[in-house]
Write a structure and sequence with these properties.
Blueprint lengths: L3 E7 L3 E8 L4 E8 L2 E2 L7 E2 L1 H19 L6 E8 L5 E4 L9 E2 L7 H9 L3 H8 L8 H11 L3 H6 L3 E4 L1 H9 L6 E3 H4 L5 E2 L4 E2 L1 H7 L8 E3 L2 E7 L6 E8 H8 L8 E5 L3 E8 L10 E8 L2 E10 L3 H10 L8 H8 L7 E3 L17 E3 L7 H27 L5 E5 L6 H11 L2 E5 L4 H13 L6 H5 L4 E5 L5 H20 L1
Parallel strand pairs: 1-6, 6-15, 10-13, 16-22, 22-23
Antiparallel strand pairs: 1-2, 2-3, 4-5, 5-8, 7-9, 11-12, 14-15, 16-17, 17-19, 18-19, 20-21, 23-24
Length: 492
Amino acid sequence: MSKYILAIDQGTTSSRAMIIDDDLKIISISQQEVANNFPKPGWVQMSASEIWTSVQYVCLNAVEKAKIDVKDIKAIGITNQRETTIVWNKKTGLPVYDALVWQSRQTNELCEKVVRAGYTDVIKRKTGLPIDPYFSSSKIRWILDNVENGQKRAENGELLFGTVDSWLVYKLTNGSVHITDVTNASRTMLMNLDTLQWDQELLDIWNIPNCMLPKIKDSSEVYGHTSIFGTKLPIAACIGDQQSALFGQMCFETGQCKNTYGTGCFLLFNTGNKRVESKNGLVTTVGWKIKDEIVYALEGSVFVAGAAIQWLRDGLKVIEKASETERIAYELESSDGVYVVPAFTGLGAPYWDQNAKGAIFGLTRGTTTNHLIRATLESLAYQTYDLIEAMQQDTDITITALQVDGGACRNNYLMQFQSDLLQTRIVRPENFETTALGAAMLAGLATNIFADKNDLIDKYKVEQKFEPYLNSMQVQKLIHGWKKAIKATMEF
């Protein structure tokens, strides 16, 4: 008889739940959108109460769709948007303010103040992170500054902080368990990457009371139980969404990496049990921790990936559906020297130019909208190439394959072009739900549904592999053109 795992995937725009069996097959999926609100330009917030309500709904609905008894579920795994910050009242269990979403820039001034105070180097050394509103520490500080008596109430132990994983575990256990896992903690800018504990110096920099922080736990262990679904179920995994996808893609060995082609791209590179300090603008983070095993990773982000295809569809209106880009790209012999740099929100790693604007290069009288479409599609691969190049320089490791997921990886032309640029194999899994799978796998390991990671590898199924077709000389010519386009964009 099959054993089932309930995987909760709580994201920026929706909450999802999946019932996954012990063969890693998805039995059912339920999804509900969650609203973002934008009180001021650059501010992004969510209702923490709505997050919780939506998670309850999708869990119950997924069980109903699967047509299984809740008692057949042997573990719950949680993966989540990482840096999003929630502060709530310990006594009432109610949020004191909306959740500040990872995208929100409302703490810019707080971050600039900390930079001016000279803390950039110590924070980077201890956390692997640049000082940026992206991470949780400044968001906690902002909430405490903007709710009545926030600081005093926090110091008195009346207020608790958590990323979304902490919030869900707290609600699922009726307030009895206040934890986070090491991957989510590593995105707060408050955890020391060497000790894997909250760091008092960092807390002092942001003036955040230790008593409001959750206990840091492994990514795979039983934290507590919930009875809200009608029977007692163990909560056995918590992990940030990108780290979960790294695990779900079976990137267990040093040098293995995955890229998620979504609205942006998130590329994570397994660096093993050693943290690597990037000299190329990448972020050092925790991949996962299971008992005595600690895995670190380098992370690079592309701000605009799938969003560039949306721009073609909704902005320029040169395509009706994103899927059209594959056919159009294959119909052309080449992009005819056209490059699109989609720096619509600046350039991320490895360039970090917030002032950069999008640009198109190489236009001639013969350029058509189809050339523009193909060049825009290729920009996703070029930006990924830049990240891989930076990671290989930081680690002195040459990748042998890139695992891919996310909506845009369904595009065969893009995957083939990516393989050509990297001169390496691209591996596309049969199951694209790698984020939820990662959480399910970790929960299954903690509850002995799976014996070990080898047991998981045996269940991994590949849908398609892409091997390089272009030779290295052709590739170098293409990359030379891209580098010129980037340089010109940054100089404009």
